[in-house]
Design a protein that fits this description.
Layout: H1 2-9, H2 31-34, H3 40-49, H4 60-72, H5 82-88, H6 97-102, H7 108-111, H8 119-131, H9 144-149, H10 159-162
Length: 167
């Protein structure tokens, strides 16, 4: 339905008021099409707020959106700043383990909103958390507040990390 609506809306070009349409519509639009009405970073801010469940994780459009977002933000390697993670929104949920490891704790807040993870992502999250080089510190110093901050990542924690957390 959304791709059909997009065809109708863009029949005569990209409308200037595209930002007033549902954000999920942008999932089916190319960022290069959008730049006629705004910047590519604004496009990905809006995409990052859209309902992630509209596109399954394996969908080619979703993978393409991530690649285009990384290019738009001029992220050369696999390290993502907190600011860029905020722009990516739910797209951080699709980042591979190498991005999670190399970005340290800057992705944890955004990753905690993801519904599920691939095994390589889970392993990377555990590596980052157990390193203690995050704003949360090492697991041995975590409190109930820390756990509430990490609530979306708790299912990823393994016994090695859980045993270090004070009772």
């Amino acid at each position: 339905q959304l791709s059909c609506l997009l065809r109708m809306v863009t029949l005569h070009g990209i409308p200037k008021d595209l930002d007033t349409y549902p954000q999920e519509l942008l999932l089916f639009l190319s960022p290069s099409d959008y730049t006629a009405t705004g910047s590519c970073s604004q496009f990905f801010i809006n995409v990052g707020k859209a309902n992630v469940d509209v596109l399954p994780r394996e969908a080619p459009q979703r993978q393409q959106l991530l690649l285009e977002a990384l290019a738009c933000l001029k992220i050369p390697g696999t390290q993502i700043s907190e600011e860029n993670a905020e722009i990516l929104g739910w797209l951080v949920c699709d980042l591979g383990g190498e991005y999670i490891r190399n970005s340290g704790g800057s992705l944890l807040k955004d990753l905690s909103h993801c519904g599920s993870f691939l095994p390589e992502q889970e392993e990377a999250i555990r590596d980052v958390l157990s390193s203690g080089n995050t704003t949360f510190g090492p697991p041995a110093t975590w409190s109930a507040f820390t756990l509430s901050e990490l609530s979306g990542l708790i299912p990823v924690l393994d016994s090695r990390i859980l045993q270090q957390i004070p009772k």
